[in-house]
User: What shape does this take?
Amino acid sequence: MANHVSSLKRARQTETRTAVNRANRSRVRTSLRALREALTKGDAKFAQQQYRETVSTLDKSVQKGVFHKNTVSRYKSRLNARLKALVTAQA
Assistant: This one.
């Protein structure tokens, strides 16, 4: 347990930041899950709308420092490839 004033404050800040990061990570995971389910169902219009929302959530997570930009770029690339395959299969 922290004894100094500065270490007590640092412990409080860590708890707060951990809660914020957990909420942001949860928001991203929920969005990714929703997009993957939309892709599985095969509804191209809904999947495109969900893709835009997911990309927005991913980009915000990079700005907040929750995920690295290359990780998010990889996610977006793979999801876009799946979406494109779905759209071309329906066309």
